[in-house]
Specification:
By secondary structure, the protein is mainly alpha-helical. About 75% of the residues lie in helices and about 0% in strands. The protein is built from 4 helices and no strands. It is globular.
Length: about 100
């Protein structure tokens, strides 16, 4: 599946995600690190442009498309996990503040 993305990091992640499911956690971490270090609006514009290739219907459904879509789902879930981690930390902080005020 040819990818026409201008952003090398995104293109490489999508290309590598087609090889094996076992590479996805590493690719998600690398792409998430890249997302955190770049302009998020530009990142998502390039990300969506790249995502349109496997879901556009220009290519037949294959194992490579399935692996790519699975990778995209894991990448999206990485945002939920980090949000939950941040909320859990905030709740623990609040609980420790509450117990300090009770003493």
């Amino acid at each position: 599946m040819p990818l026409l993305c201008k952003d090398k990091h995104i293109r490489d992640a999508f290309t590598a995600s087609q090889d094996s499911f076992s590479t996805h956690p590493k690719l998600v971490k690398n792409l998430r690190d890249y997302y955190d270090s770049t302009d998020q609006d530009k990142f998502f514009d390039n990300f969506i442009d790249t995502l349109l290739v496997p879901i556009s219907g220009l290519t037949e459904r294959s194992i490579f498309v399935d692996r790519t879509l699975d990778f995209v789902a894991k990448f999206a879930c990485s945002f939920i996990k980090s949000k939950e981690s941040n909320n859990a930390g905030g709740e623990k902080e609040k609980e420790s503040n509450d117990t300090e005020t009770e003493d």
